[in-house]
Write a structure and sequence with these properties.
141 residues, 6 strands, alpha+beta, 4 helices, Beta Polymerase, domain 2, 6-stranded mixed β-sheet
């Protein structure tokens, strides 16, 4: 190499843009998946699953979500009940359907809680059951 010839430094690596890997959904029992899909189909917001098996709970799972208004809360509750009925399960108890601020659908093994955003913030089930394993599901796109 001649003295006057300068050595070129290698070009910096161009930033390679890769697609983020899709987040894998935790593996849940079939009846929980049915409840989640039914809620997603009705555009439920902030879907969270609490695994209560190791938290001394009276049930195995809570499926918690929010609806924007009374009509959506009813639609989510109806969709969950219909999805479970199609697979042979009926709720042991449904509470709060008439008021539509917090609808609770109890299947013994799991309970689906459908809240208005204000009621969900007030009661804070995720906070109350802080020792449970929590799985926040990504928003459906």
């Amino acid at each position: 190499m001649a003295k006057t010839e300068r050595r070129r430094s290698p070009a910096p690596f161009a930033s390679v843009q890769t697609r983020p890997e899709p987040r894998r959904r935790a593996k849940f029992p079939k009846h929980i998946e049915l409840a989640i899909r039914a809620a997603e189909d009705k555009k439920a917001q902030d879907i969270t699953v609490l695994d209560l098996k190791n938290a001394s709970g009276f049930t195995d799972y809570f499926v918690i979500c929010s609806g924007a208004n009374a009509r959506q809360i009813h639609a989510i509750a109806d969709a969950v009940i219909e999805a479970q009925a199609a697979h042979g399960s009926k709720p042991a108890h449904v509470e709060g359907y008439d008021r539509s601020e917090w609808v609770l659908v109890d299947y013994f093994d799991f309970i689906v809680h459908i809240f208005s955003p204000e009621t969900r913030a007030f009661y804070g089930l995720e906070r109350l059951w802080g020792n449970a394993e929590r799985v926040d599901l990504p928003a459906a796109t």
